Amino acid sequence: LALLNRLRQAIPNHEFVLHYQPKINLANGDIIGxxxxxxxxxxxxxxxxxSFIPLAEETGLIIPIGVWVLETACRQNRAWxxxxxxxxxxxxxxxxxxxxxxxxxxxxxxxxxxxxxxxQYLELEITESVMASDVEKSFALLTRLRLLGVKISLDDFGxxxxxxxxxxxxxxDTLKIDQSFVRDLATSQDSAAIVKAIxxxxxxxxxxxxxxxxxxxxxxQFLLKSACNEGQGYLMSRPVSHQHFELLxxx
Length: 251
Ligand code: G
Ligand code: G
Ligand code: MN
Ligand code: NA
Prior knowledge:
The chain is an alpha/beta fold. The protein has one domain (2-250): TIM Barrel (Alpha-Beta Barrel), CATH 3.20.20.450. The protein contains twelve helices and nine strands.
């Protein structure tokens, strides 16, 4: 309860910040995007999203927090564009609860209008569990978001249990291969086979494929050879502050 009371105050107290992790074009190393990841700088120290996001989801606080994240991320991306950097896509994680509310399309439209960011430079990351909860409703909302021009990526892909027949007609642009498969690439033939299978599945469906959790040069080379399009992970960069990310854009 103490944590929950503090969490309620975190927005008014300006205790949240976003960190940004670059997404790289594996073939040429260009930064093509950034995933926004929330950090809570509470009076009692940093609290990891792994512990407060579930609480925020249970209590509904994820709704105002989600709006804050969306606004802050879009405003930051627009600021980088206005500063003259080559445009990148900003990716924001969405909880199923944010889709369940039903007004996510209006929220996104409003934030894009407010911040002046073009829809093509915003991507929403959802997990497979989102489509499992209410498929028809998720389909409808994601389709409307894509009509706005927003991109959709399927996060942690391979860990859920989505039917592959959904995927064929699911309104999605990118598959994000879950980091567990990437981590075990060198030691597990099964993981290597799964990664290759996801890449060819994605490409056959005309999707971009991104691998997350790349930590070693060996993993990087495997993914490059396997024609994975994009990558993200500590090998390239940890999630960093907006100031630090701007230094990465300058290189
Ligand atoms: O940022 P990592 O560093 O610790 O993130 C832990 C978990 O929290 C991940 O599953 C990530 O998707 C989730 N997360 C991080 N930021 C956000 C956010 O802004 N919104 C939601 N819904 N989840 C987030
Ligand atoms: O659930 P989602 O995929 O949105 O969460 C991304 C999480 O992965 C964040 O907690 C982020 O800090 C973490 N992360 C990003 N790159 C790496 C990496 O190379 N290795 C590990 N172990 N974690 C990573
Ligand atoms: Mn994510
Ligand atoms: Na993920």
